[in-house]
Amino acid sequence: MNNRIAVIDLGTNTCNLLIAEYQDKSYEILYQGKEVVKLGKNGIDKNRLTEDGLNRAILAILKHQEQISKFNVSEVVIIATSAIREAINKEWFQQQVKENTGLELQIISGEKEAQLIFDGVKLAFDEIDDHSLILDIGGGSNEFILTQSNKPIWKQSFPLGMARIIEQIPPSNPITSEEIGQINDWFSSRLESLWQQLNNIQIPLLIGCSGAFDTLADIIDQTDPGTKTRIKQEIAADDFTRVYETLIQSTTAERTEMKGMESIRIEMIVPSVLFIKLVIDRLKIRKIYQTDFALREGVLYERIFS
Q1: Which of helix, strand or coil describes residue 281?
Q2: How far is residue 2's CA from residue 23's CA, in Å, rounded to a whole number?
Q3: Given strand 3-10, what is the order of strands in its sheet?
Q4: Are 137 and 272 in contact (CB under 8 A)?
Q5: Which whole number is the average pLDDT over 193-222?
Q6: Distance of alpha carbon 44 from its chain centroid, rounded?
Q7: I want to staple 60 with a disulfide (CB 3.0 to 4.6 A). Which of 15, 192, 249, 262 is the partner?
Q8: H or E stretch at 24
Q9: In whole angstroms, how far apart are CA 298 and each of 101, 148, 221, 305?
Q10: Which residues, in sequence order, are bridge partners of residue 4?
Q11: Under 8 Å between Cβ of 153 and 2
């Protein structure tokens, strides 16, 4: 008999759902959904979750549960990441989710999050080149994983998500050169352990997963968000540079009209591409791949291969 699992990833900006069926070493993705929650709004810089954020999260989970009820799943997993694990009132949040949805929220560590992201990417790539660098950009944190022999040899979660930076250094409209410098300095100084770890290592490939990379691929492909599934897709260096230049010169109104721009990314895509460019330039990376597979697919990988 085939197993069916529903995985809810309650992130800082979005609450994502994956429903999949698996048996032996094979799987099929049956449904994917996304709801906006913005848990970091008006509180992430203070590491405090708000009542409004909780209400948005509960509404999103209840909507996902409606979908889950149509698929006869045998297991529902709900995972919380950076905004919740860093919050001083996370126990209150966890309890409220349980009371309102019946689900036990698993608050995972940054290291566990990075491991699940690696597992999700492995499900997409099967074989990963040595010294590839996996990067998952989130609203609350960014995870880096260095690979060798198809395994993670170093991984770290940095609480430098895009919801945090726009609270720290709110960008103008459009962003100014001075703000770009401030944001780059803010990121660079807090990534010291990454620079040290990768010193003298040539990184052949950056594998980008989650929101910002998905939006980049949608803008390059000129496709509406969520309409194209990509297990893996190369982002050409020229395409990245072109989209980067367009984004950092754009106003909020211009980004709203861009083909491929998801509404949740309008505010955060500019610091996201600054972050990506900083990493590419500092580590002299020449090749970028994007994948839709990340944390939720990592939970599926665990179930298939455990």
Answers
A1: helix
A2: 5
A3: 26-36, 14-23, 3-10, 75-80, 106-107
A4: yes
A5: 95
A6: 16
A7: 15
A8: none
A9: 24, 18, 26, 10
A10: 21
A11: no
Q: What is the dihedral of CA 90, 95, 97, 101, to 10 degrees?
A: 170
Confidence of residue 276 (pLDDT cuts 50, 70, 90): very high
Q: Left, alpha or beta for 200 (phi > 0: left; psi -120 to 50: alpha)? A: left
What distance in Å separates the CA atoms of residue 248 and residue 264, rounded to the nearest whole number? 17
pLDDT category at 292 given cuts 50, 70, 90 is: very high
Sorted by where each starts, the structural domains of the chain and their CATH numbers stand as 3-108 (3.30.420.40), 111-295 (3.30.420.150)
pLDDT at 167 over 60: yes
Give the integer Cα–Cα distance in Å for 169 and 9. 27
* Residue in the block written with tokens 């990075």: 114
How far is Cα 122 from Cα 163, in angstroms, rounded to an integer?
A: 27
Q: How far apart are CA 178 and CA 136, in angstroms?
A: 26
pLDDT level of residue 24 (50, 70, 90 thresholds): confident
Spatial distance between the Cα atoms of 62 and 65, rounded to a whole number of angstroms: 5
Task: Take residue 27 and report the two structure tokens written for it.
Answer: 């799987």
Joined together, the tokens standing for residue 135 give 């990067």
Distance of CA 166 to the CA centre of its chain: 16
Burial letters for 241-277: b for 16+ Cβ neighbours within 10 Å, e otherwise? eebbeebbebeeeebeebebbbebbbbbbbbbbbbbb
Task: Give the tokens for residue 298.
Answer: 């990592």
CB 118 within 8 Å of CB 298:
yes
Helix (H) or strand (E) holding 206: strand 206-209
State the amino acid at position 29 in one-letter form.
Answer: I
pLDDT digits (tens, 9 = 90+) for 230-271: 999 999 999 999 999 999 999 999 999 999 999 989 999 999
